[in-house]
Amino acid sequence: MGDQIMQSIVNGWVSGSIYGLMAIGFTLVFGIMHVINLAHGELYMLGAFSTFIMVGIYQVNFFVAILAAMLIVGCLGFLIERYIFRPLRNTAMLNTLLASIGLSIFISNLVLKIAGTGMRSIPVPFAKGNLEFFGAVISVHRLMVLLLTALLVAGLFWVIKYTKFGRSLRATSQDTDAAALMGVNINLTYGIVFAISAGMAAMAGGLIGSLYVVDATMGLGPGLKAFIIVILGGMGSVVGAIAGAFIMGYAETFTSLFWAASYQDLVGYILLILVLLLKPNGLFGGVKR
Q1: pTM, whole model, 2 decimals?
Q2: Could you please report the per-residue DSSP string of 23-58?
């Protein structure tokens, strides 16, 4: 049992890291732009397909492909903010919510029409083999995913805390009008935030696609899960998104260990209900980063 627990700790860490990539991007958009982007999962799916096309068809280096997918989907995110969400900026939040739902349906059906229902895999031949420590086994591939995720999250925190752009983000999230009076370009800031969010979703899609499979409907589950995680941690809180991601990752892993893998998704909804009952604003609902 000790080895199984250690293995579950490792698996939960991997799951939490991937969920964190999705949730941070989701919560950034809400915290700064006050937009609930329910098309986030489809951007994740586009990142997976972009990585697959470059690696699986054109034999591009995996790391280059991940960066390129982030850039491609990030640019798409910038355009989505400019032409879909910006015209709705001063309207009711319901309008942006409905727009994101429509965008989600459009993207998923477009990819389904072009790519079909088949499943693809992203080859990563250099990341073979396993490492063992304290009775737990982790593949080199999963360890690579952990390291890439940690680097991106650490880089994002550094940008938010120590750069001029990060100060602009914090100012905009607290008071848009005051930030504009201080010289912050709100339109550009919103566009870059959405691009960063889309790029993070794309990276998560590429990494998950390399671990499992790529298909046109793969964004639905992770997109919904990112939404649940953000509510758990507190809408708009980056720290809350990370905490919620690891809570979700470990809850699912230990549910699989002590109960059954088929109940993994159920535990997320149970956690959501409990948190909403006990702390409606989320675990870190009052924290801004």
Answers
A1: 0.93
A2: HHHHHHHHHHH----TTHHHHHHHHHHHHHIIIIIT
